[in-house]
Amino acid sequence: MDMIDKWAVNELQLFISSDYQLYHGQQLSIEKNLTKRWEKGTYKPNLAVKLWLYLADAGARKYKIEIPNSDVKFTKPIRTAAAAEMEEDFRKELEQK
Predict the structure, then answer these.
(1) What is the pLDDT of residues 65-86, one digit of tens each?
(2) Which three-class secondary structure string do you get for the chain?
(3) Please, what sign has the CA dihedral across residues 49, 39, 19, 1?
């Protein structure tokens, strides 16, 4: 991943984390779902990335609406990388509990 892609991944993650609707509308339910799976012992990182990808897709759509003049293109690889990083960060939080 080159620097511009890494920047786009970080831009998408920052946008998602600072958006009230995305946080309360999707992120909290994803975290609740994955926490239950973690506690049951049925947590699968590859499936968790798919859940985070739904959030990344929603974030990319909302970014395009709210910042229409932006040149940033959140391609599928960028959204997938953002989802994978969100999964990894959340899994690390779960491991520390």
Answers:
(1) 999 999 999 999 999 999 999 9
(2) CCHHHHHHHHHHHHHHHCCHHHHHHHHHHHHHHHHHHHHHCCCCHHHHHHHHHHHHHHHHHHHHHHCCCCCCCCCHHHHHHHHHHHHHHHHHHHHHC
(3) negative
pLDDT in tens, 20-30: 999 999 999 99
**Distance separating alpha carbons of residues 38 and 91, to the nearest angstrom:** 9
Whether the Cβ atoms of residue 22 and residue 16 lie closer than 8 Å to each other: yes
Contact 80, 57 (CB under 8 A): no
Question: How many residues appear in the chain?
Answer: 97
Place of tokens 């899994």: 91
Q: What is the pTM of this model?
A: 0.92
